[in-house]
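User: I'm new to structure prediction. If I give you an amino acid sequence, what do you actually give back? Let's try with this one:
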Amino acid sequence: MSQMLIIDDNIEACETIESLITRQSHLCDMAHTLKGGLERLNGNGYDVVFLDVHLPDGNGLEILPQIMALPNPPEVIILTGKGDPDGAELAIKGGVWDYILKPSSVREITLTLNRALKYRQEKNARTEQQSVDLSSVVGVSPGIKTSLQLTAKAARSDANVLITGETGTGKELFARTIHKNSRRAAQKFVVIDCASLTESLVESTLFGHRKGAFTGAQSDQLGLVKLADGGTLFLDEVGEMPLSLQKVFLRVLQERHFRPVGAAQEDTSNFRLIAATNRDLDMMVEQGNFRSDLLFRINTMHIRLPPLRKRIEDIKPLIVARMEYLQNNYGMAPKILADDLLTTLNSYEWPGNVRELFNILERAMVNADEDNTLYSFHLSRELRIQVAKAQIKQMTGSEVTSNEGGPANDGVRKIGHEIYKDIFDRSLPPLKEFKGMTEKIYLSELIRQCNGDISAILDKSELSRSHFYSLLKKYGLSL
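Assistant: Good question. You get back a string of structure tokens that encode the predicted 3D arrangement of the chain. For your 479 residues, that looks like this:
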């Protein structure tokens, strides 16, 4: 007996599908809004979900990442109207089992449901037999959970995998996780940094050479491709591979044959390929900088890693895990994380992603020295200034009007930029030292530093409660 959920605001459609489900002795629940559907999904282990695209409180496709991030996500069947090809495309990209055009016959719905249930039974049986250790990857966000689900599938297969994501998102970590959980785990994981390959030595580096093949070749040397025989070959930054090499490497991927430099006979290597890049390979193909046939070869499975700014709920778990690592490997004492530290880190854009987070954390721990608690103050001044600028811009808006309601005054921003230089290195002075158009900047930063605590705000600014609230109204600010 399986359990189903229908999320659709069309009562008649819900009742039709419910009748079909119950006739097959399955259990069925219904919800008529996205909010109601998510509430039921979070509390029950459904096998199949029928999800309408157009609902009163939003688009059903928007919650697909949250559904797919569930511990054992259900198979999702999208209900979409005829003439909505974009909806069908987005549904498939979101990882749904299938989509049904409304209205559809009972027979069509039944066939789709039965296929989904059969697939789910087989998938659950495989999952029970093959456990995958994903403990090396830290994260609780929907985006990272989706990536981990694909990683588990990749580990159970021998297909080529392409991992994409910004610099510092952990592409090599995911590649190693796939290797360690694959049937090739006992063999080598060989890394080729495509960005460092030089035209003169590329074939010798990849395919090896025989003694005397060129000046300095004093003995036979195995190439990286042969070293990966039986194991995994990881092409890091594959988007940097020169076009001249792409053609050569394509044949290696197709045939698993290659010829070492100076050799009369070809050699073979039975490797599993994982490639990674931070570049848009589809765009590079359009621009003629990457071969389309090579992209087809390496892109059998595609794992997209989200940037850290889109998974801020993972920042704290990442910090805790990294502190434990630093303690075990370098004897650094763990610290308590202050709320203002996490607030600052959650507000940062993280251009360097997880790698940058780890570097910043280690620097902050060194800066904290024997302090037991990590505060925002222990972070680098440059990071805190960037966060302050972004927060004040968000609170004050890009346009600043004068007291008379006239156009924005550039002097306000210039004064503000001077404040940014040392705003974290001293307490804010009383408001009487600020005049005219600087009030809005002062109040915005005051609210941020005091976390909206009215008592702290009044104490620091020396304002009366009534005067403070009149200023809030005057500048359109809120706590």
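You can read the tokens as a compact description of the fold. Here is one thing that stands out. The chain has 20 helices and 16 strands.
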